[in-house]
Design brief:
77% of the residues lie in helices and 0% in strands. With 71 residues, the protein is an all-alpha fold. The longest helix is centred in the middle third of the chain and has 21 residues. The chain starts with a helix and ends with a helix.
Amino acid sequence: MRAFKKWDAVEYPLPPTTERGPVNRDMLSQRKHAWRAALSWLEKIIDSCMTVDVIQDVIEKELREEKEELN
């Protein structure tokens, strides 16, 4: 969870009353849950793959699909 804490400190550095409204800081447990789910998904991908290239391809595909959904 060190990587999550580092990311969270950058994305949510201020108290909830001065940053994006009070809801975001209250959502810390949900962000942690999502982070754990992402790590679990990645672990499953790693277990089923033999090479780093395959893992990288799967992650890139997921990120590309997410970007396409946002557009």
